[in-house]
Amino acid sequence: MPSPVAVIAGNGSLPGEVEAALRASGRVACIIAIRGEAAESTRARAQIELGWGEIGRLYRFLREAGCKDVLLIGGVSRRPDFTSILGDLGTLRRLPAILKALIGGDDSLLTKVIGLFEVEGYRVVGIQDVAPELLAAPGVLGRIKPAEDSIRDLKIALQATEKLGELDIGQASVATHGRVIALEGAEGTDAMLQRCADLRNSGRVKAKGKTGVLVKAAKPHQDLRVDLPTIGPRTVELAAAAQLAGIAVEAGRALISQREETLRMADAAGLFIYGIDRQALWPGERHG
């Protein structure tokens, strides 16, 4: 029997979906809920709940549970600071390495967090390793198909997102009528979409009907084991409020949370959901 997978769970519904996928594949999930981040439903199923300063307890739990693989999943709304990581003796013993991990951008932080587990002998796995069915497939994913002008906006937003990712700033952009109108920063995708709605409502972006495309894509050199771009029902709700025509994510490199509900809501709102295949968008060319 394969060893249990330690699922270190942040916020959102994905930890529960991952647990169900692991169970369906015959593997056991040991849920570690991050205190102050994990949803109530995740906490109810968790074997243990830990704060940032309980690294010693975390490694003791992993050892006693027989976990060799570790999966980091779910959102983290607040990056840990110095005061939040002062905790048990196991944390203090590893403090120099932990402090180094807190320095740098998001990509740097996540790479260093992976390193903290690997130096202890654990293997950090990604969704593609344990639950690939949660990743977006290529092509049209709902009932609505993108029009030609939406494909044009999609390409422009994808190129903008790639440039954004090169600077380790964000994973999403919105383009409409052939120009980029929003780039994701530290505020996150939801706040960016609310900004797009404000631009439409104020008349700063003049358009009739549904137009424009949200693109979410992994950063060019991103470690795909952590922090994959994710969309879900809330993304659809905000994209509809911003009067966008659709949402596009990279096939095989992005997650769709609550897939059935997300696609149902998109169909009802008249929004397309599209899995980006670069070769299909730029046939005969090398891109990305």
From TrEMBL:
InterPro entries according to UniProt: LpxI (IPR053174), LpxI_C (IPR010415), LpxI_C_sf (IPR043167), LpxI_N (IPR041255)
Gene3D superfamilies for this protein: 3.40.140.80, 3.40.50.20
Domain LpxI C-terminal span(s) in chain numbering: 138-274
Superkingdom of origin: Bacteria
Domain LpxI N-terminal span(s) in chain numbering: 5-134
Any Pfam family the entry gives: LpxI_N
Protein name as annotated: Phosphatidate cytidylyltransferase
Species this chain originates from: Roseibium aquae
